Amino acid sequence: MVPASILPLRCKEGSRRVITINESKIKIEGQWRYLWAAIDVDTWEVLAVWITRGRSGLEARMFIREVLRKCRGRPRVLVDGGPWYRWALDSLGLVWEHVTFGERNPVEQWFGVLKQRIKRFYKRWPHNATIVQAQWWIESFVALY
What we know:
Blueprint: E1 14-15, E2 18-28, E3 31-40, E4 46-52, H1 57-68, E5 71-72, E6 76-79, H2 83-91, E7 96-98, H3 105-118, H4 131-144
Parallel strand pairs: 1-5, 2-6, 6-7
Antiparallel strand pairs: 2-3, 3-4
Helix pairs in contact: 1-2
């Protein structure tokens, strides 16, 4: 079962040649959390975002399954060297590639824009914000991005 907290973005389902996935640490409620993002390399459309407490193959698999709901067919997936991706992608039977630069640029740039924005929060949300409230803020940010 996919957690309700994975953002059901209003992007259209479509044929996607290549998607890129990445995660980054952000501080919420005084704890480090992981923000996952998936972006279509050709259109730079944000397909999904999700905040989790952990960063493992299980979280990666759950996130990627949700991303695939926005894709017709099986796109090639680009990821960084995170060891949590290998099992998740292999278990879903996806063609994937470890790429450090180049085609992964859309997701890296998106995280750059996001981090510039949350820098105003000193890379943490207000002291009383919950993980759910942070997810809502990210959803709003994506809608405006």
